[in-house]
């Protein structure tokens, strides 16, 4: 005989298997963190040894950089952004907050956008990026000379928001890793991804905290400055050609802000264009800017040119800056009208834009930097001469090829600390040892390669060649003539992103175990509290039987719906950022649902077990479980829908009200007995009516039939029968009809939740 609850046994097995997979994944991830940490230490030791050796052979003025990029090869060599008469007018009031801004941001330079509060700095940047959804943008934008928009080359753009929107439950390295996986080509090798992450960790000075949880206000993690670095690093992991930052120094002390901007400026050496909104930086920070755009009141241009040319320009207008004054602060005072003009005392702040329009200074074209062959030959000769001298002093004058032991002895002679055994093996591979020997010529070539921005070791050259060939073979061209890479359909993007996001959310699930444990304990406690009063009342002869069954569904429905609010409610800003970066809504939504589904299923099992223990309910465990699980699934769908639509501060109350109305006012047994017209329709659409009704009618069938029902409860029984069988499904039975209705209800709730996530605040996903 076939077990009638075979499917339920399978569901329990799937739930336990899901939890086992999540636990194993968390264990594997923890082990991989240790392996990556050891790998990072080896790479750092190799870099230290290589840099010390190179610097010992060349003058201090030509010291090699401490780190060379391995994976940060930009998707495009350079981007020039030109804007002509750019303006933004608010849709709500019609007010013009940016007007007539013209100019350009040149490649491989750091440009700062400054101005007093209300000058439209952030709005101007949003207009460039196609993110000014709250206004109407006018004017023209050109990318590399072709009329276009930065929004059309989103894969080449990195936008760092002012707020540090990061994954609170992930480590620093994990954040960067998932960003690199999601925002680089789907065929990018794993080694390349790890190199990109290592580059970002180094350039943003995050190596020391790479395995630290980022945390939040409630759970302390990394510092505010480190959190800001992670915020920037998430965009760098995408290898953008142009990086745009909205007030990256806000909320930071002066020294931390200076370190971050210095880190960002290093990226111009590999071809990146950096544009940032800043607010009154200190002098040492201001000197790091190559170009400067000053916006005055009304969002009009007051100055646009080289940063060192701003002070002479304002002096020519008749403004005199006091000694020891910070130029950035003084510029703000001039634009705000707090500085008197010596030439024209009646000059008003709004006239500064007119003065600039009359006398626009044209920035000279930046000289193209090429490779000087003679200089390269001179460097090679100097390196060879210096190396020969050092080798001679170490006793290896006539040795053309150095063995491993000879090279290590040479390091001792140069007073360079020997690397560890594992690091030494990696260093030999990078330098090009063959059969335990390296020639002088190969050693010189390796040391010369250390002077560039990119690592020249054989392994990374191969990866770079792979990316170049892949991009050449698969690129497509946008309106502006810029390669946009292989374009995937929604299905293809989903198949790539869903497994990555699923893995990310499984790690997030494991880190959030305390929250899960508290939610589980509360549900079990509620099951005990609501189950105890049901003893001896869950029989057809007791008039309170339908009421107790209905009330028993409220705790699992209310608590599971509220527990599901955190799935999207607290992370909507994070979703907006990831959606704007190219993460698919469907993949993001389903990945989170998949992981959360196992919690809802487990809550159903535990609630049913505890409730039956305290209520001493008759019938089988599976009969009660089926209804409780359907209640939990429907209520969870409501909670997820609320989390995508209702503001976080109101979502808990709104969800509780909806569940209590559906589980109380709409499906209360007395309402079922008297249901007519509108009340009958409302009772019909409540999942509590179906699940509690299924329990009650199944209990009657297994406990004496309709004849055993108390006289005063007959109308309630008939009311449930009328609603549950209203679609002519008497042949299907109560259980099948309840399955169908609750499945449709849960699907619709989740579907509308998906629509809410996809279309609500659509402008913030640009």
From TrEMBL:
Keyword Membrane: yes
Transmembrane regions: 6-28, 517-533, 553-570, 582-606, 621-641, 653-672, 737-757
Domain ABC transporter: 81-323
Membrane topology: Multi-pass membrane protein
Alphabetical keyword list: ATP-binding, Membrane, Nucleotide-binding, Transmembrane, Transmembrane helix, Transport
InterPro entries hit by this protein: AAA+_ATPase, ABC_transporter-like_ATP-bd, ABC_transporter-like_CS, ABCG_dom, ABCG_transporters, P-loop_NTPase
Predominant localisation class: membrane
Localization per record: Membrane
UniProt xrefs under PROSITE patterns: ABC_TRANSPORTER_1 (PS00211), ABC_TRANSPORTER_2 (PS50893)
Coiled-coil zones: none
A Pfam family hit: ABC_tran
Protein name per UniProt: White-brown complex homolog protein 30 (Putative non-intrinsic ABC protein 12) (WBC-related protein 1)
């Amino acid at each position: 005989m076939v077990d009638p609850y075979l499917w339920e046994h399978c569901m329990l097995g799937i739930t336990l298997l899901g939890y086992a997979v999540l636990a194993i994944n968390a264990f594997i991830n923890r082990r991989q963190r240790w392996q990556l940490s050891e790998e990072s230490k080896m790479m750092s030791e190799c870099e230290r040894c290589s840099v010390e050796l190179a610097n010992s052979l060349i003058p201090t003025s030509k010291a090699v950089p401490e780190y060379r990029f391995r994976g940060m090869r930009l998707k495009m060599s350079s981007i020039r952004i030109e804007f002509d008469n750019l303006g933004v007018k608010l849709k709500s009031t019609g007010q013009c907050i940016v007007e007539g801004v013209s100019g350009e941001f040149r490649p491989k330079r750091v440009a700062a956008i400054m101005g007093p509060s209300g000058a439209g700095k952030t709005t101007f940047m949003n207009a460039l990026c196609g993110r000014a959804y709250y206004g109407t943008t006018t004017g023209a934008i050109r990318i590399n000379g072709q009329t276009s928009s930065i929004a059309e080359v989103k894969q080449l753009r990195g936008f760092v928001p002012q707020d540090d929107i990061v994954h609170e439950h992930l480590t620093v390295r994990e954040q960067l890793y998932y960003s690199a996986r999601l925002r680089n080509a789907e065929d990018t090798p794993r080694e390349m991804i790890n190199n990109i992450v290592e580059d970002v960790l180094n350039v943003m000075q995050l190596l020391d905290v790479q395995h630290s949880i980022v945390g939040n206000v409630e759970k302390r993690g990394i510092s505010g400055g480190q959190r800001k670095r992670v915020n920037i690093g998430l965009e760098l992991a995408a290898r953008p050609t142009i990086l745009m930052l909205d007030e990256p120094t806000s909320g930071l002390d002066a020294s931390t802000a200076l370190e971050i901007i210095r880190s960002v400026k290093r990226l111009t050496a590999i071809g990146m264009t950096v544009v940032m909104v800043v607010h009154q930086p200190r002098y040492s920070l201001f000197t790091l800017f190559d170009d400067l755009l000053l916006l005055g009141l009304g969002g009009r241009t007051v100055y646009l040119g080289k940063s060192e040319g701003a002070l002479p320009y304002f002096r020519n207008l008749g403004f005199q800056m006091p000694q020891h004054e910070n130029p950035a602060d003084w510029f703000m005072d001039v634009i705000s009208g707090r500085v008197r003009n010596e030439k024209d005392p009646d000059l008003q702040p709004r006239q500064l834009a007119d003065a600039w329009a009359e006398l626009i200074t044209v920035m000279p074209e930046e000289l193209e930097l090429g490779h000087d062959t003679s200089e390269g030959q001179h460097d090679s000769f100097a390196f060879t001469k210096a190396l020969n001298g050092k080798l001679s002093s170490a006793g290896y004058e006539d040795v053309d090829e150095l063995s491993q032991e000879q090279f290590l002895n040479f390091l001792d002679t140069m007073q360079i600390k020997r690397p560890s055994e594992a690091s030494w093996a990696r260093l030999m591979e990078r330098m090009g040892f063959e059969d335990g020997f390296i020639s002088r010529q190969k050693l010189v070539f390796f040391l010369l390669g250390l002077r560039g921005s990119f690592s020249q070791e054989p392994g990374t050259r191969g990866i770079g060649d792979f990316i170049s060939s892949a991009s050449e073979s698969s690129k497509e061209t946008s309106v502006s003539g810029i390669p946009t890479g292989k374009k995937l359909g929604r299905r293809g993007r989903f198949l790539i992103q869903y497994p990555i996001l699923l893995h990310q959310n499984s790690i997030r699930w494991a880190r959030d175990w305390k929250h899960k444990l508290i939610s589980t304990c509360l549900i079990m406690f509620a099951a005990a509290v609501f189950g105890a009063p049901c003893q001896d009342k869950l029989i057809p002869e007791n008039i309170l039987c339908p009421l107790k069954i209905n009330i028993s569904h409220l705790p699992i429905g209310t608590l599971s719906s509220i527990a599901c609010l955190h799935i999207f409610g607290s992370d909507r800003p994070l979703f907006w950022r990831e959606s704007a970066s190219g993460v698919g809504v469907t993949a993001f939504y389903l990945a989170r649902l998949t992981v959360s589904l196992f919690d809802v299923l487990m809550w159903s099992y535990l609630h049913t077990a505890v409730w039956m223990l305290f209520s001493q309910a008759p019938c089988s465990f599976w009969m009660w479980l089926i209804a409780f699980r359907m209640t939990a699934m429907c209520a969870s769908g409501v909670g997820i829908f609320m989390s995508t639509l209702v503001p976080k501060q109101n979502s808990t109350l709104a969800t509780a009200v909806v569940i209590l109305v559906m589980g109380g006012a709409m499906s209360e047994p007395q309402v079922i007995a008297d249901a007519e017209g509108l009340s009958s329709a409302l009772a019909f659409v409540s999942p509590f009516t179906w699940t509690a009704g299924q329990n009650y009618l199944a209990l009657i069938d297994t406990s004496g039939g309709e004849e055993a029902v108390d006289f005063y409860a007959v109308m309630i029984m008939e009311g449930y029968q009328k609603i549950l069988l209203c679609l002519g499904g008497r042949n299907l039975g109560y259980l099948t009809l309840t399955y169908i209705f609750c499945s449709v209800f849960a699907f619709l709730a989740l579907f509308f939740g998906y629509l809410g996530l996809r279309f609500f605040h659509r402008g913030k996903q640009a």
